[in-house]
Amino acid sequence: MSQHTNQSWGGRFSEPVDAFVARFTASVDFDKRLYKHDIQGSIAHATMLAKVGVLSDAERDTIIDGLNAIRGEIEAGNFDWRVDLEDVHMNIEAKLTERIGITGKKLHTGRSRNDQVATDIRLWLREEIDVILAEITRLQDGLLSQAEQHAEVIMPGFTHLQTAQPVTFGHHLLAWFEMLSRDYERLVDCRKRVNRMPLGSAALAGTTYPIERSITCELLGFEAISGNSLDGVSDRDFAIEFCAAASLAMMHLSRFSEELVLWTSAQFNFIDLPDRFCTGSSIMPQKKNPDVPELVRGKSGRVYGHLMGLLTLMKSQPLAYNKDNQEDKEPLFDAVDTLRDSLRAFADMIPAIQPKVEVMREAARRGFSTATDLADYLVRKGLPFRDCHEIVGKAVKYGVDSGKDLAEMNLDELRQFSEQISDDVFAVLTLEGSVGARDHIGGTAPKQVRAAVGRGRELLASR
Questions:
Q1: What is the pLDDT of residues 351-369, one digit of tens each?
Q2: How many whole angstroms separate alpha carbon 456 and alpha carbon 324?
Q3: Active site amino acids
Q4: Which of 81, 266, 306, 356 gets the highest tally of CB atoms within 10 A of its CB?
Q5: Closest CA to 329 of 313, 345, 342
Q6: d(CA 215, CA 323)
Q7: DSSP β-bridge partners for residue 162
Q8: Between 287 and 87, where is the model more confident?
Q9: Is there a contact between 429 and 374 (Cβ–Cβ < 8 Å)?
Q10: Which residues lie closer than 8 Å to 175 by C-beta, 6 or more apart?
Q11: What are the residues whose beta carbons fall under 8 Å from the beta carbon of 416, sequence distance 6 or more?
């Protein structure tokens, strides 16, 4: 075998791989981040091989000691990653053999890089999902605190970005909380399918060695063992599913971001973001740009792209493993990094938001936001809703022409549209009366907002 070919497969080859091809096909530059999980899987594999008699206890201990020493070198920054060894797996195995001799070559007995990488990436993603779930919880906790504090702060609610009905700032923030709860549930469910062990599938057909997959499954904390060796090495559904869940979560964060960008603009001026989450302009000294939400809004496209990339990667692959699958890691790694960091930024930022209470309230007074409340008032007086809708529409037109909000009209002005209107109408037309009247689960009444906060806290405590 040429000294320039990879020691894991070079016996078949009579000439070294072209230098460019070696670089082109190598994955070590990005898959080295799997080192901890590769070593974790190898320790479990060696432990199992010793229990079934393929390795001696002494060989197992030598291998484990060597792997732990290599992990220390990597974490200390003293490990020499080699492109000619292609990937994280062969780099670690070559270093192990260099360190402990021929015993290091026995570690790969009964497995392939195909089931090894499939195991590593599941171990890594499982751990990253746990980190992401913790960040979602931290962000939700910040939303609950803000919602509780601002349960009575009135702001306009919008449809079509036009003033619709009054809501409260707390109620609005709890809508974000609900979105994140669904994201949390999806990722918990996704994790179940990530947490299935392919190790033991070997290259594609299993192995003739007397392995006990249940041993490695327990050692590695997997919930189940893959049921088919062909599928075990070639399945990347879990990565696609994660990117789908991540895309939904990033879509939610992008929607939050859009609202924060609008609310910090001079035209809305609803909130203030602390300086530490913003930047200035190189030419306009007055500018305070909401860079964190803008960047999160932009990063959503990266994750969408990774989802489509992985779907396209897998759509034409025959069973079992193909080199194409090397292209799964970079999009998955970036999707994880992007979602985790975006959530972290929001979890830091949301508790620091300061609503501008009077500005929000004044905005809610504009745009006839209590028009629906007036229509509901007339319904309670015995009129059909469609007739009430028309009556209030005429009152709104009068308000537009006269420059008066409904609450600013006197009783005579209102009664020209319906004789059913009496003095009690003014309690309905106030902003507080409007939000307080929607007193049901999921409604805008401050006591319902506080009740929702209580349910949210119970939810977080149960995780």
A1: 999 999 999 999 999 889 9
A2: 44
A3: 160, 281
A4: 306
A5: 313
A6: 29
A7: 159
A8: 87
A9: yes
A10: none
A11: 398
Q: Which two tokens stand for residue 118?
A: 């499939």
Distance CA 98, CA 101 (A): 6
Q: Residues in the chain, how many?
A: 463
Q: For the whole model, what pTM was predicted?
A: 0.93
Task: Please tell me the distance from the alpha carbon of residue 195 to that of residue 332, in angstroms, as a whole number.
Answer: 16
CA distances from 136 to 242, 291, 346 (A): 15, 21, 9
**Ramachandran bin of 61, using left for φ above 0, alpha for ψ from -120 to 50, beta for the remaining angles:** alpha
CA nearest 242: which of 321, 318, 328? 328
Contacts 24+ apart (CB under 8 A), 161-167: 162/367, 163/363, 163/364, 163/366, 163/367, 163/368, 163/369, 164/369, 165/369, 165/370, 165/372, 165/373, 165/434, 166/364, 166/369, 166/370, 166/431, 166/434, 166/435, 166/444, 167/435, 167/444
pLDDT value of position 285: 86
Residue 17, pLDDT above cutoff 90: no
Q: Do 200 and 115 contact (CB within 8 A), yes or no?
A: yes
Q: Name the residue type at position 124.
A: W
Mean of pLDDT values over 159-165:
95
Q: Give pLDDT tens digits for 107-128.
A: 999 999 999 999 999 999 999 9
